[in-house]
Predict the structure.
Amino acid sequence: MAETQSRSADRPTTSLSTLEKGIVVLVGITAVTHIYPGVVEGAPPLVLAGLGFLGGAALYVRGVRRDALAIAAIPYTAIQIPLWVVIKAGNYTLVGYVDKAVQVVLVLALLVFVVRRYRD
């Protein structure tokens, strides 16, 4: 019963707006661009970051605490960008640049989504 109430407080699990669908796709892209290199390079932090993105997306699609997940995804994603700059320290790859571009778009989309939700 509590789970049903929690889900209905956000929205039904099947109703994702076009913006939300785009956000889920962007999250999937950044998840893959973390998990694959993390496995290939043997870098557990990359794999964990990618799994965090996938876990958040799965919960969101299922309708679990969507508003909280959207808000939490903003700093979770944004912190990845300066971490990449520091950790890679000039040893950047095309995949890294693509991922950071995706993450910038993702943060902007999340900000638009959250502002719209709280303005309504």
